Amino acid sequence: MKTPFTLFSLLLFTLSLSAQQSAFPGAEGAGMYASGGRGTPDTATSVMEVTNLSDDGQPGSLRYALTANAAYRTVVFRVSGTIHLTSALRIKANTTIAGQTAPGAGICVADYPVSISGDNVIVRYMRFRLGDRYQKKTSANGDPVDGSGGDDAFGGLGRSNIIVDHVSASWSTDEALTIYRGDNLTIQWCVISEPLNYSYHFEAGDTAYEKHGYGGIWGAKHGSMHHNLIAHCRNRNPRFAGVSTYTPDTPGTENVDFRNNVIYNWGINTVYGGEGGNYNVVNNYYKYGPNTGSGVRYRICNPGMSTAAGFGKWYVSGNYVDGSPANTANNWSGVSAADTTQVKAVTPFDIGYAVATEAPADAFTAVLQKAGCSLPQRDTLDQRITDNVRNRTGRIIDVQGGYPHGTAYEQTVNAWPSLCSVPAPADSDHDGMPDAYETANGLDAVNAADRNGYSANGYTNLENYLNSLTHDGNRATKH
């Protein structure tokens, strides 16, 4: 019989594991301790099953899974394919989206943006490929209006404890993936590609649609961005948000570690911005492409300056610049700034969270092999993008599928890769774990409550199943 002291000690041990547990094996950086929909020993996660590709808000739809009331939610998929949204979709606090559970080729979300609207969120193995279906906005007489083409494919502003892992984002009319103004953020192993350049982006003061194929605005009070591929983006590869986006806008508020990323075929700029913040730009791999301007072909970064915040401080080291041995050997010769003496930091900033760092060439190989929504399997678009990077091919595009500006949406519907579905494994108690997995691991296939049991490794039984999908046999991936 357990004594009260033993039970109390066990409870403290369980709570301690939960409080300090990484989001999943392979989570690194400032967002690594997000717990998402894990729940607590007293409050179990609500398992939300996505069983169809409709956007009607009914049970079984992704919209229902993300909007139904739940203290903690874990979204699992029992179908693969593309979900065509009919309005924007927001992710609430304390949510885990486990795209790796989709049977078949995985999930893509299209037509409207998806954004993080609450703290403590984990998003893994998802595709967000917006497209221009609803992006053209005009006045009564047909003229473009402010806000036309103003959507990101995926993003979030002002949220904390966020980790975005193995996500593929593309075909936006603003930025492909934008997250800033929060705290404790990790963006890792993602593919950001082909934002639509000459699409329908129009802002007040414009006289024509902009060329706005931009990658993203990234930043956080503590932010880590590593092992991402950013390809075919005209600009914002990424832009660091800078302190003016915070209240108060105190210099040093934004602290970002950007390492082991691969940047390919930028148009007019690489990494830039970061007014008033602190930034590490370390061991990244830069490879110019067919659309890269000759004046920025060997640029590493372009620190920004504002009257209010001044320059940020940048530690730039170990970056590889394809085609420029000089800038590879001396990274600061690849930094374009009005006054590098005000920008240059001689020691890296400690943002409080470590990331295992590789040589740029090793990161290049790993990112091309594993980044993006690579589970259940890579789609043909990401495969094409990684082939472009290897072969220095591809281009910045204006319409999904590479069609000319103004092409009717109906002529482009085949641009979205086909994502086949297969029957999902039986899950009698609908706890997110297949019957066969529960039986093999000593769990009860007709007792949904066992999803919330904590294992010795600190994860719940449900989390152990979700994590097993990223480390198992033919579905294996390092992260």
TrEMBL record:
Keywords: Glycoprotein, Lyase, Metal-binding, Signal
InterPro entries named in the record: Pectin_lyas_fold (IPR012334), Pectin_lyase_fold/virulence (IPR011050), Polysaccharide_Lyase_1 (IPR052063)
Record Gene3D superfamilies: Single-stranded right-handed beta-helix, Pectin lyase-like
Source organism, top-level taxon: Bacteria
GO molecular function, one term: lyase activity
Keyword Secreted attached: no
Signal peptide: 1-23
Keyword Zinc among UniProt keywords: no
Protein name: Pectate lyase
Organism listed in the record: Chitinophaga agri
